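Input/output pair, single chain:
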Amino acid sequence: MVAANELKAGMTFETDGKLLRVLEASHHKPGKGNTIMRMKLRDVRTGSTFDTSYRPEEKFDQAIIETHNAQYLYKMDDTAYFMDNETYDQYEIPVDSVENELKFILENAEVKIQFFGTEVIGVQVPTTVVLEVAETQPSIKGATVTGSGKPAIMETGLVVNVPDFIEVGQKLEINTETSAYLKRA
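Output:
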């Protein structure tokens, strides 16, 4: 059991038969009354997100999430295929539940598959990835890093705001948590 005031971003817990992941958590002390915990949560099974609040002393069952190293194989129709690196078991995950993560991974990339018991609940990508620029406006001569930037479409379809000097074909390091350009690779 874990109290609401101990829940942090990234933690997963069970309540009312739902498996919920904390996206954001903060204490809130209104002018009158007791402290409450404001949280942004995602239902792991359905993918829906919502905001809610709990009393700090409310208790929940913390979910035990296991991760296994896996390799992303390919996407076909509405299913993404992954293979466990140790057992060579293949997992089929609906694209709807890993749509955001697929923007950061190429075929044959290493990822971690998250399990709740025997149920596959998601994919964990590295904090940074290297992707190639597939499409962007031509670079501007004499552009500096401090410019406003321009959008670039990466090889996975991810759109990232990059500095004006970036050209098609360059490899860039991207932060997967914020979808932000970090540097040239």
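The chain has a mean pLDDT of 85. Residues 32 and 63 are 33 Å apart (CA to CA).
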